[in-house]
Structure formats: C-alpha cells, structure tokens
Specification:
Helix content is about 40%, strand content about 20%. By secondary structure, the protein is an alpha/beta fold. The chain has a single domain, classed as Acetylglutamate kinase-like (Carbamate kinase), CATH 3.40.1160.10. The strands form 3 sheets. It has an 8-stranded mixed sheet with strand order 5-8-2-1-11-13-14-12, sandwiched between helices. It has a 4-stranded mixed sheet with strand order 6-7-10-9. The chain has a two-stranded antiparallel sheet with strand order 3-4. A hairpin with a 2-residue loop joins strand 3 and strand 4. Helix 4 packs across helix 5 and helix 7 runs parallel beside helix 9. It starts with 6 loop residues before the first helix and ends in a 6-residue tail after the last strand.
C-alpha cells in the first residue's frame, strides 16, 4: 500500500492535515484505551503510532488505560474466578492486588515501552502516584471498587510540561492507604475534566452510539448532552452504553470541549478523528453550536 502512494500524494495528505494540526497544537487530548484495540497487537502498534505522531506535531496526549481481559486472564492462571455485578468486577483484597500488579505493572510499562519504541517520550504512573486519583469505596458488596472523590492533577500536568506522554493506569487510593479498582471510563472522564481537555477520545469495541444496536449503519455521528439524555430516556441508549455516555456527559460538565466514542478496532481511528474531515464514531458536545 505504501508503495502505491506517490510523493506528491503524500505531500498533499500532509498539507490537508495542516489546519487540524494547527487547531490542536498545544491542546490536551485524553485517550481512554482498552478492549480489543489493546488485545490485538497490530492495532496496539497503530494506536501507539497515532499517539506519538500527535505528540510530535504539538498535541499534548494523555493515555488512560484499563486492562480488564488481562486481569481476568491473570486471575484464571492464579486459580481465581472473576465475578461481575452489573458490569463491575467484584474486587476483594486478593483481587485488588492482582489488579494493581497487572494494570500498574505489566500493562502500564508495556505501553510506555511501546510508545518509546515508536519514538515517543512516555512516563507511566497509576492513579495512586501522587494521589492522582483519590477514591472511596462504591459498594461494600463490590469490595475494593472505587468512586473518584478527587483528582490531584499535578503529576499529569508536570509530565506534560516536561514533554512526556503520561500513561495512567486506573487505580485509586484513599487516605487510609487502601487501593481501589476504578472504572476506566470514569477515571478518564475525571482526568480529562480536571485538565479541561480539548478532546476525550474513548476507544470502544463498537462504532459509537447506534440508534439500532444491531445495525452499525445507524451510527449517530454527533449529539449534545441534552440529546444524549433524551436518547437514554427513549431507550435508544441502553445497557452497557449508559455508563459510557454518562461518563461523556460528566466530562463535558467538568469542562472537556468534546468527547468521542469510537471504534478502537479501526486502524488509525484516532488520526481519522483528529486530522481529517471524516471523523469517526459519535461526538458528544455541550452546546448547540459547532466548534
């Protein structure tokens, strides 16, 4: 494919991207990363390439990651069964240790290493570092599953100012020293809100918000917060999409300009969204106007 593109075409592609590069230069983009885009090695490398490219053209990128499948796989190898209640992992003391090991250890450092192999400068931290994410227990029956109480954003902004790509694993802690498993979408929305990010991009396993969940062509390309709430009341936004859209609304409410739910299985979907007219996924925005 690469050999089929002439130098003139390559130059034309770059000049077409220029207005978008200027638009996002110096701005903060938070990317929530997980799901199949994280499991598939080819897609993983393309996500890393997208992030490094954005950083090199002046976009300040923060990568927030989960790792549910790898946590479940590690638990299975250790002879421990994963139990979920309403989509949330029941997290006892032993499980939170496994979550911490997999998220803050293996996955976080692997992503940091991949970004650096692609020419980026990355630094991995967890929500426990510098008390980035202060949390409290959500529900006794879920164990160490946490709700975000406060985001102390200084560790992230310090890294951005030094030119690093912060890679954040979604753990939190309380003042008593307890570690908590934090939902990835919730953590990303809270961090993006505190940063007043230009964009929060949530990589998912679906094309975006669909009017008919069984019809990919029924994608809703954009909607306001008001429209999102109406679609939920009408039952069009349902099931697992409800908490994801709620996180979008929370991020907008906290000051994020726009939030995009997109299919992380599409190669270079991040660049398609930020650097082309085409865009990708469903955009959620606050007001009625375009920005």
């Amino acid at each position: 494919m690469e050999g089929m593109i002439s130098n003139a075409q390559r130059a034309e592609i770059l000049t077409q991207a220029l207005p978008y590069i200027q638009k996002y230069y110096g701005k903060i983009v938070v990317i929530k990363y997980g799901g199949n885009a994280m499991i598939d090695e080819t897609l993983k490398m393309q996500v890393m390439e997208d992030i490094v490219l954005l950083r090199h053209v002046g976009v300040k990128v923060v990568l927030v990651h989960g790792g549910g499948p790898e946590i479940s796989e590690t638990m299975k190898r250790l002879g421990k069964e994963a139990v979920f209640v309403e989509g949330l992992r029941v997290t006892d003391r032993e499980t939170v240790d496994i979550v911490q090991m997999v998220l803050a250890g293996k996955i976080n450092k692997t992503l940091v290493n991949l970004l650096q192999m692609k020419g980026g400068l990355a630094m991995g931290i967890s929500g426990m570092d510098g008390r980035l994410i202060e949390a409290k227990i959500r529900d006794e029956k879920l164990g160490y599953v946490g709700d975000v109480v406060r985001v102390n954003i200084a560790p992230v902004t310090d890294l951005l100012e030094k030119g690093y790509i912060p890679v954040v694993s979604t753990l939190g802690c309380d003042r008593a020293g307890n570690a908590y498993n934090i939902n990835g979408d919730t953590a990303a929305a809270s961090i993006a809100g505190e940063l007043k990010a230009e964009r929060l991009i949530m990589l998912s396993d679906i094309p975006g918000v669909l009017r008919d969940k069984n019809d990919p062509s029924s994608l809703i390309p954009e909607m306001t917060v008001k429209e999102a709430r109406t679609l939920r009341e009408e039952g069009i936004i349902s099931g697992g999409m409800i908490p994801k859209v709620e996180c979008c609304i929370e991020a907008i409410t906290k000051g994020v300009r726009k939030v995009i739910i997109m299919d992380g299985r599409v190669p270079h979907s991040i660049l398609m969204e930020l650097l082309t007219d085409e865009g990708a996924g469903t955009m959620v925005k606050g007001g009625e106007g375009n920005a």
